[in-house]
Amino acid sequence: MKVHPVIHFLWKNAMRLVLVAVFVGIPAATLYLREVGIGFGAKEALAGALSNHAIEVSIGRLALDPFSGLLARDIAIHDRDQGGHLIAKINNVALSLNLSELTRGRIAVDKLSLQNAGVSIPVGNLESSPRLDVQGVYADVSLLGDQLRLSRFEGLVEGIRVELSGLFLNPSSVKIKPQPAADSGNAALNPELIEKVLAELAALKFPDGPPTLHASLEADLEKMDSLRVENFTLRSGKIVGKGWQFEAAEVHGQYSDGNLRVPRVFLRDEQGTFEASLDWSRREGTLDGTVISTLDPAPILRALAEKNEAARTLAFSKPPHVEAHVVVENVSAKPEVRVTGMAFAPALAFKDTKFRDVGCHFAWKDGVLYARDVKFSVGRGNFSGELWVAPGDFRLNARNTIAPSSLLGLFDPNMYLGYESCVDSLTRAFGARPGYFLWFQSIDDAFPTEVVAASSARSALTVISLALSSAAADSIRNDTLLREISLGRWDSTFTVFANAAIRSGAVIYLRFGYEMNGNWFPWGQKKTAFIAAWNHAHALFARLGATNVRWIFAPGIVWDGLTVANDIIPYYPGDSVVDAVGLDGYNYGDNYDQWHHWQSFRGVFGTSLLGIKDLGKPIWITEIGCPTDQRRPAWLDDMFAFMDENPCVEALLWFNAHKSGEPDFRLQSDTGSLGKMRTWLGR
I want to staple 107 with a disulfide (CB 3.0 to 4.6 A). Which of 49, 337, 647, 666 is the partner? Predict the structure, then answer.
């Protein structure tokens, strides 16, 4: 059959166009839709379909992927009821649309899929709030009428692999619960506390791979108290923290009808195990738990109380055996705590004193402790007795054959001299009368009237280092104490303190929350909260007329690559509320721990001292120390030379003490150092 040349030409070129469209046009269009995205208001329409009365969803880019289908990127979810508070960010989500609804001109999403996505959830209401970042998220979510089925969720949260599944009814009825007001006192939702918990988790190491948390959830989102968590489990191999480690960990539990039941908490270290169980009823406000432990608690105690010299000296040659039963009532209001149990340690050392066969049975309720069958041995002697401790009441019925000399290591040899005798002893040792004395106390300690009077009688001024923590409070409350100060909850305590300072008639230097840029105190590394607490307290003192109180801003020296600009200035409360700037710094020597080594005076203080000169305030060295060592006299010469070259330092306070577990900073512990200091002071 002969085809007309024109028809043949048209047919041939038409086929070429089809082939170009198939092999070039369609891939190019697909690439365009994937990389550039779909326009024409599609992403806005889809965002509107995902939003409801409680949340507003925005999509940064909507694309078409040949493998994943419709792909939404850079998704932000905001709460409509809290002024657009950001709830979460998700970098990419694959979506499946309901075709039946689409033919009717409506957009409805049937399924959401996350493939190696990242989710960022702020835990506070501010842009600067800490964030919970979930990496490597794989999830499949199906929407079936009034049901939301989570068939799979996997993600990595601060090194912990989380695996979830669940079924949720009435997803359209969900309401985002408003964040509690700042004065609600709800520490559990405190962003600062959450940030600290996340930081502690991030510091852990898991050599055997990430722990796995698995849980199955069910809830009617119209009734949030209907939440059920069936058989959640947490399993981990080796867990390594700072100075401690566990070989294995395992937790099993379930939650339903407002009751949390955890029948097994298991930890194992190289020497023993820890087993616990607990039952908590939210409705009844009760908690009941039991503990049996043969772990060595010393590494954990040292980690929790890093700066506590007593904790650093505690060591067990064999792990103690501890059993306890804990009952807490009124958990959500004013908790009433009862603890009964027993403890026995075959051998332990504390402050260089060795104890054997240490044990007791104990009961504790609302601040009252009763211990019976208390016993221990030291040297050739034995102690046994009964102990009763209550607020304002201490009773001990004891039988003792231990020589007092065997217990001298437990006590500071100067503790019975009295403050005035210690001051006079130091004056004689240094051959000069000190101009300042440094006093340490907690926020709820009484104003040191006698100390201030003794200093004034010797023509010296008292520098009070005020720790922004309370020995009577637990760790959770101390972590939130800065917020309590700024909200005025400590005003009555500060008022008593300020009025006592006024009555003393002496100039008082106050180191409010010293070393706030470090991580070893509960008030440390909380820039915004620290400044707010400082300004609130300063304003209160000013209103009360405590003009004789001078405020010293006293951070720690910068180290480990930090600078004055990024580690001191961010904590500075402002020129109008600061009278002097001090620095705390130590040369800990080579034998204190693995993070410290011998440093010259210039190595410790040089960068920090020169950096704070621009603040234009009087400069002090508010804590300084160098351990006993044959190199210390030369170290002091370096300090004296620097001070002569930079006469900006108006006062220097040497930490002349030997705390148990720390280097001996006393200058009189070697004649060479004492002679150097006496000569310098006598100039």
Answer: 49
Instruction: From 108, 102, 114, select the one nearest 46 (Cα to Cα).
Output: 108
Q: What is the pLDDT of residue 90?
A: 81
**If pLDDT is split at 50, 70 and 90, which confidence band does 357 have?**
very high
User: Taking a C-beta distance cutoff of 8 angstroms, is the pair 480, 534 a contact?
Assistant: no
- Quick check: 278 and 253 in contact, CB under 8 A? no
In a domain, 572, yes or no: yes
- The tokens of 516 are what? 């706030």
The CATH number of the domain where 512 resides is what? 3.20.20.80
Q: Which segments of 80-211 are extended strands (E)?
A: 85-97, 109-122, 131-144, 147-157, 160-169
> 318 lies in a domain?
no
User: Would you tell me the crossing angle of helices 449-457 and 419-430 to the nearest 10 degrees?
Assistant: 30
The reported pLDDT for the residue numbered 276 is 94
- Number of folded domains that form the chain: 1
pLDDT digits (tens, 9 = 90+) for 496-543: 999 999 999 999 999 999 999 988 888 888 999 999 999 999 999 999
Q: What mean pLDDT comes out for the span 635-642?
A: 90
* For residues 10-25, average pLDDT: 52
Q: Would the CA dihedral through 541, 547, 553, 554 be positive or negative?
A: negative
pTM given for the model: 0.56
For the chain, how far is it from start to end, CA to CA, in angstroms? Answer: 123
> CA–CA separation, 550 vs 510, rounded Å?
6
Q: Would 337 be classed as within a structural domain?
A: no
Write out the residue range of the structural domain in which residue 521 sits: 419-681
**Would you say the C-alpha torsion 545, 546, 547, 552 has a positive or negative sign?**
negative
Cα distances from 545 to residues 32, 495, 574, in angstroms, run 71, 11, 20
623 domain residue, yes or no:
yes
Which has more pLDDT, 68 or 402?
402
Give the H/E segment covering residue 400: strand 393-400
